[in-house]
Amino acid sequence: MLLIPCPHCGPRDETEFHYGGQAHVPYPKNPAELDDRQWAEFLFYRDNTKGAFAERWLHSTGCRQWFNMLRDTVTYDIQAIYQMGALRPTPDPAAQVAPDSGTASTAPDSTTTGDTAPSTSSTSTPAPEGATT
Q1: Is 0.90 surpassed by the pTM of this model?
Q2: What is the CA radius of gyration of the chain?
Q3: CB distance 42 to 28 below 8 Å
Q4: Chain centroid to CA 133: how far?
């Protein structure tokens, strides 16, 4: 669960909020001039960014106010909360996740990513009685 800091009510559980999609999607300047394809792109096509992403959120069971959030889509870290209509803050480069980073061990004896395979010698313990070898 995320703990979302509502700018009006303070930190609240994620279940109190509704996701409102990508923030800062500009409304078409001349909507009457758009054809069906252009309307479809405006209504349904959104970015799918890996990393810092500006989102709209509604505190539906609290103050019922909309706000924007800058959240990292990889780590779920909330980098900024700001009012609707405000300019998007720039993401903190220190909070960005390097593409090759992860939680697996890179030690030479690691069984997940290292160069050495785990030992499979049969000198450890004998097989249980009745097991086929």
Answers
A1: no
A2: 24
A3: yes
A4: 47
